């Protein structure tokens, strides 16, 4: 589990993460189908999670921009793949939430087909950050996404959200259960990052992790 104070992190990675995530960013497009995807010129990271897991709030906190990703109390608000370009270094993808049972079934099926096809086929996708609500832990539809990513050999890392809304002993047990489950998944990065968008907890850690990922990606390329 990664839940470290900023001074316990590599200061170079912390600074690199801040420079990248707090630097220039532009909304590129919202892709409603695979035909609409932008060119795969830059390394991409994607954020996925169940509807109402706090994905938009996390992206806004991570970039310290209040409205980069749209926040709503209505689950299922994000209905397309939203692409954000960070200078000329990285593309971030805000993916539609999954597991929203109250949305029309045909719409849910279409979203899932698009998302899963994207995950399987995007060659420049460096990592998917799968968000898990700290109050609930891993659900069955999360496991389906884990399996999909395993089968597609797409690297992913779990980010726990809303950590401030659960008592510490309960959260600790839940985190232990998540880490135990992830050991069974071949494409899962072994360490879990714990966050709270409301209290800005874990943001420097996540930024540093993304900076390290890009550094490794550049070295590998």
TrEMBL record:
It comes from the Bacteria. Residues 41-216 form the EngB-type G domain. GO terms for cellular component: cytosol. Keywords: Cell cycle, Cell division, GTP-binding, Magnesium, Metal-binding, Nucleotide-binding, Septation. The keyword Magnesium applies. PROSITE patterns: G_ENGB. This is Probable GTP-binding protein EngB. The lineage of its organism: Bacteria, Pseudomonadati, Pseudomonadota, Alphaproteobacteria, Geminicoccales.
